[in-house]
Amino acid sequence: MTMNLEFLFLSQDDVNRCGGADMKTMIDIIEKVISLHDKGDYVLPTKSTLRWGGLDAETTSGRINSMPGFIGGDIQASGIKWISSAPQNPFKYNLPRAAGVIVLNNPETLLPESIMDGTLISAMRTGAVSGVVAKHLAKEDSKVLGLIGAGVQNRTQLKAIQAVCPNIDRVKVADLSLDRAQKFCDEMALEVKDVTFEIVSGAEEAVRGSDIFITATVTEKPIVKKDWVDKGSLHIHVGSHECEFDVIDQADKVVVDDWEELKHRGVETISIMYSEGKFDPSNIHAELGSIVNGKKAGRENDEERIYFNSVGMGIEDVAVAKYIYDQAKAKGIGQALNLWNKPAFV
Ligand SMILES: NC(=O)c1ccc[n+]([C@@H]2O[C@H](COP(=O)([O-])OP(=O)(O)OC[C@H]3O[C@@H](n4cnc5c(N)ncnc54)[C@H](O)[C@@H]3O)[C@@H](O)[C@H]2O)c1
């Protein structure tokens, strides 16, 4: 019996070659995860956050999240994503705000079997969650998409929305940085066809008249106001404290991914409201999984304002990582690295 332990190292390029940037595949995986989440076939220890300072450090010096999870069904994956966030990175160093790795563990021995880039996977799975959301909660004929924040996340958000709402033909982009907005439009126009991109003056213009609008910024102060939100729109809230409290109060349906996780997170609008005693959890229409599994209604008419907030779950990352690992093994991609030849002790 061999005693050496090899694990597979997968770079971002390897993850990409294994299909990590294929949004349709990501949406299928994530929809399955969300369904299993509703069925209770998962283990999700609370995300722990390492930061220097208080909650406001999230938008200044940054933080590192550790996100373990096990997901069951026919996925059977366990592991952890370790992901940093430094909002200054794109501006100061021309580096991404977020970067991370995922460790995948063997289901039988529980030994680490792969370490891979988690940066691409994290952005893709966050987009894919919104793809699942839009599939169930956007107006069927959604045409106009407003994006607030011209960063990494709204790139994958855009890809996901286009994958499930093929009639989107106008994309409005708002960012505090005009350079970021321009770069976003130039780069995404090469990837996303059949839409017109328009840089708008601010959040108000991006929200008004949009069938779907997505807030994915690192703002400390709310940027979306109640009066801007049209009837029938879907607001996908990806970032931090991005809307005024009454935007959520006004929504006909409030949907979240996992309330237990979200309520303790402390940086999203809805968890701030909750901690201040200003949000009653009985006002949550559903967790996304119960809509995916048909237990709760999704969108019921074209008048409803629907608000969705995701906290993000480690089970999404490990599920995608498992898919990538299986692809890598099948295609012979990646670099086998030795953790030991013979364990020091048994
Ligand atoms: N819910 C989830 O699962 C999940 C997953 C990943 C990231 N996120 C969150 O998404 C957010 C965006 O992440 P990213 O990787 O795209 O960051 P990024 O740094 O790449 O982009 C953020 C953009 O927001 C812009 N911005 C900041 N304040 C703004 C304001 N007031 N109005 C308009 N634009 C503003 C910045 O200029 C920047 O271009 C972060 O808050 C992150 O924590 C959530």
Beta strand count: 16
> Within the CATH hierarchy, at the fold level, what is the topology of the largest domain?
Rossmann fold
**Oligomeric state as shown:** single chain
Give every kind of bound small molecule, once each.
nicotinamide-adenine-dinucleotide
Structural class: alpha/beta
- The CATH top-level class label of the largest domain: Alpha Beta
Order of helices and strands: EHHEEEEHEEHEHEHEHEEHEHHEHEHE
Task: Tell me what you see in this structure.
The chain is α/β, with parallel strands linked by helices and 346 residues long. The protein folds into 2 domains: 5-121 and 314-340, ornithine cyclodeaminase, domain 1, CATH 3.30.1780; 139-309, NAD(P)-binding Rossmann-like Domain (Rossmann fold, 3-Layer(aba) Sandwich), CATH 3.40.50. The protein has 12 helices and 16 strands. The radius of gyration is 20 Å and the shape is globular. It starts with a strand and ends in a 6-residue tail after the last strand. The model has no long low-confidence stretch (mean pLDDT 96). Bound molecules: nicotinamide-adenine-dinucleotide. Nicotinamide-adenine-dinucleotide (NAD) binds next to helix 5. Residues 85, 87, 90, 97-98, 126, 148-154, 174-177, 180, 203, 216-219, 223, 238-240, 310-312 line the site of nicotinamide-adenine-dinucleotide.
